[in-house]
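Quick start: what a row looks like.
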Amino acid sequence: MYKYVPLCLFCFANVGINFCSREFIREYSASHPESSGLKAATKAASDAWKSMSVEEKAKYTKRSREVWDNYLTTAPARAPKPRKQTNLVTRCSPGRLFNVLQRLTPDQKAAVRSMGFGSLLGLRCRTLRRSLCLWLLERFNTARRSLEICGERIPLSPKDVELVMGLAASGKDVVNSGPDDLIVELRNSYNATNHGISVRLLEERLAAPEAGEEFKRSFILYALGTVLCPTARLDVSPSFLHFLTNMDTIHQYNWGKFLLDRLVREVSRFHQGKQRAVGGCLLFLQLFYYETVSVEGPGSLVPGLGPCLSSWGEEEITEREKRERELGGYGFGEVLYKESCLGTESSRCRAQLDCPPAGRMHTSSEHGPALGHGGNQVERDQMNGEIIMDEENLPIYLGDKNVVCGDIEVVVESARKACQNKEYGCKETLDYMKKSEHEETCSYAPCACPLLECDFVGSSEQLSLHFSSKHWDSGRRFRYNCPQAISLGMNEPFLVLQAEEDGILFLLNKGIEAIGNTVMVTCIKPSSSKETFLYDLVSGRGISSLRLKSFTQNFPGRVEGFPPVDFLLIPFRFLNSSRQLNVEVCIWNSTELGADCPALGLAIS
């Protein structure tokens, strides 16, 4: 975790004032009985302190240090107070969005579909089951991005968001940061304050019949602020305006990843006690539970067309909650494989589940009839031949080698397919059953160029070459094991670092919290990569300094939101006179960690 030099040292001067004031006020009150009371004595003490020399103040500062050190060594450790919360406070309000959707005109609905948010038009759920959401939050592992329910760990991915909410789980990363001057006009047009954009203002604008760019922007803000990515505050985050400057590219973003990242961030902050209200899309958690856990048996959840969002209305949810109570509460159902209850890897495959494949089917029996759609009943003794499907017509949603349908047993022959990362350099050709397992850990998985204006996607090696040739002047080159001083401006959310030895790309990320900046180092590699790098961050101001030693985590591009990784929190007072953040960064080569790495001599917790 984090290694900080105690910042309380800077308070010793103030504590010294208190020591001085106590003695001075006692003496002043005794020698000035005619004074008007404590107020006059305190002012006199303040004036006396200001007139003291450094040597005179030193004795009080020394005493304050002694008292503080004695407190730290003698005070008993305080056990953290257990968090008790029986009522869930959340800004996720599907009912508000539902009411707005009912008033949209046909042109406005067409505009919503053109942005890739058409699935929201099928929203039927108007209320959250808060007891269920609170139960799920208690079992949400933000570090693993999983739900630990019914005795199993169920991982969550952007694909799950796509299957439940109908939002795209592929495309460019959504970036909600950047120079503030680019969104000044938009902030003014929405009367955005430090608290955010008023939800009521957005509702008023959505009531107008126009369906142009302003409607689209207002609708996205409203959907994000009320259901998809609400924060702990009442208003909509103005940071969303950064990706709403060009409404023609909204449909190109990976909204599934953005929604999940924001949910993990908000739940993590809730678990840490940083906020009483819970942000993030709790509707997704609720519907995901309904779709993943069966309370009627293995065959109760049948894949349907379209996202699960449109399958759960108030009647269906009420019936489901009744069944949960009959079983004794949440968590008594059976966890089904997501392939069974949530469909397959994309919305396109979900439609195939209810439609017969368009490919040809023929029997291996020499005299068996061809199976068609004519409807003639085939004699039982004519169906004993082995039915084989051509490889090119093999449905990609088959999850088992043997699929039984009535009296016909379809045996799928071993099919070999190229890895989906073939275009990025992977040359593996694998059996269909092993293909998905390989792709989860494929080293050629695509990574995106972190620069906002670039759409390049390729393997980590291809990205390294691309950045060296196209953006050589947009980052900072460094050498492993060598500390390097770096300054980040107020409007710089990150800086790309490229190693001279092997060209690997890293990001020095900077975020903003209420009391200061968060800084962390990540590596641009596939998330499944096991390669890690030890790094050291140091920031100082005067005699005070902060330090973090940790290992990088891998992200296939820019880091969005607030990922559950180690970070260094640097107070705003550490900024220099130019409002820049000065840090010293040192990254160690992963191949040298087991050898003679001086940083390993320090404890890392």
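That is the whole record. Residues 1-13, 338-414, 594-605 have pLDDT under 50 and may be disordered. The first strand starts at residue 3 and ends at 4.
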